Amino acid sequence: xxxxxxxxxxxxxxxxxxxxxxxxxxxxxxxxxxxxxxxxxxxxxxxxxxxxxxxxxxxxxxxxxxxxxxxxxxxxxx
Length: 78
Fold this sequence. Notes:
Elements: E1 7-11, E2 17-22, E3 31-36, E4 40-42, E5 48-50, H1 52-71
Antiparallel strand pairs: 1-2, 2-3, 4-5
């Protein structure tokens, strides 16, 4: 059976939340994320800070390539 879409990247309109869902039937890790701007992450000095919109934007930029490299190596991307 052919699947019309192999993945779905969901981002809210304000760019504050995102997640990637792989729709391949044999995928061992179907969901990456979610990532939220309010997530706490280590800051430059080791203290805990909110990741903010830049962290969400970074996730959006890299998630498809990361997921394909890790779980579907050799698959051709467009």
